[in-house]
Amino acid sequence: MSIQGVTVIGDRLNPEGFKKTRSLIETEDFAGLQALAVRQVEAGAQALDLTIGPRGYKDPQFLTKVIASIQEVVDVPLCFDYPNAGVQEVCLKAYNPAKAKGRKSIVNSLAETRPEMFDLYKIQPFRVVLMASERMEDGVAKPNKLSSEVVDVAKRLSSRLIRELNFRPEDILIDITIHSLVSDTEGLTKMALEAIGMIHEDPALKGMHIMGGLTNIGNMLPPIKFDNVTLRQMMENAFLSMAVPRGFDTIMGTPWNDFRLLPEGDPVLQTFKEVIELKGLAAMRRLRQLWARSSSAPTGAA
Question: How far apart are CA 241 and CA 235, in angstroms?
């Protein structure tokens, strides 16, 4: 089920996140990669994230062939997932906008630690993912742990894109970074949700999109189910239930997942709300209380 106003960028063309994709790339199975691309688009993906992993740094010819093969079978924009200007240059030179109905590709991702990526715009225009989770401070890269830091980075980077390269606000996607709930002992999930609301309400960032890699939040959760829906999927939906009303509008995720907003009173959503208010071992203990529930227990059980 889709959520009105929310775009999905398919994330399955990633060998580092998915074993099947890694096998397809290792065996150079172009037909398999094409089938995976088509399946994502048929499931509702409006763009496809694409990386061939570390091989992209040393085999530009293969990377070019992968891009061309994917564009042979789908007409949605491709989102090139490399934090390296050299690899992004290969991707942009290989990308054919005509194959995507004239639509621009997406460069994922630009950060304050990668100023050289601004020069990529000389190759061809693109949309861009801004990585707002890190900043440069006194010449040193530092992770952002406050929502105000995330917003400040988003404003600095987007302002430069608009001023120097005439970017349109709608071509800027601000990645607030979604962390694994299991390993979040510092309250970063709550911080990300706060940042979403602040970005959405800031006049200087009006018209820009807010996104994140949704698959991350369920990493390391046990394979239990609630009404035949995995806990991992339910946690993704719990995040969306709090993030979408705040302004989150672009999912980097698996497009055939059942993305939906959970009703108030849903036990997983309630647990999620409680966990993000906690830190350290207290957060983990509250999560484990949910894990202990039987997969056959009714969703509305206490």
Answer: 10
pTM of the model: 0.93
What is the C-alpha separation between 189 and 177, in angstroms, rounded? Answer: 9
HSE-up (13 A, CA, CB side) for residue 184: 24
In this structure, what token pair is assigned to residue 293?
Answer: 């529930």
How far apart are alpha carbons 33 and 18 in whole angstroms?
12
Beta-carbon contacts of residue 98 (< 8 Å; ≥ 6 apart): none
User: Which residue has 């992968």 as its token pair?
Assistant: 66
> How are beta strands 225-226 and 229-230 bridged, if at all?
antiparallel
Question: Of the candidates 73, 167, 62, which has an alpha carbon nearest to the alpha carbon of residue 120?
Answer: 167
Distance CA 168, CA 195 (A): 21
The more confident residue out of 297 and 174 is 174
Reading phi first (left if > 0) and then psi (alpha if -120 to 50, else beta), residue 250 is in: beta
Residue 302 confidence (pLDDT): 29
In SS3 terms, 105-153 reads as EEEEEECCCCHHHHHHHHCCCEEEEEECCEEEECCEEEECCCHHHHHHH
Question: What does the CA dihedral 66, 68, 74, 76 come to, rounded to 10 degrees?
Answer: 100
Does the pLDDT at position 109 exceed 80?
A: yes
- Domains in the chain and their CATH numbers? 7-291 (3.20.20.20)
Name the H helices within the chain. Answer: 19-26, 30-42, 55-58, 60-73, 85-94, 147-165, 188-201, 231-243, 267-275, 280-291
Determine the pLDDT at residue 227: 76
Measured between alpha carbons, how far is 260 from 278 in angstroms, rounded to an integer?
25
Q: Are 100 and 50 in contact (CB under 8 A)?
A: no
Q: Which of 257, 273, 267 is nearest to 294 (CA)?
A: 267
Residue 76 host element (H or E): none
Q: What value does the mean pLDDT of the chain take?
A: 92
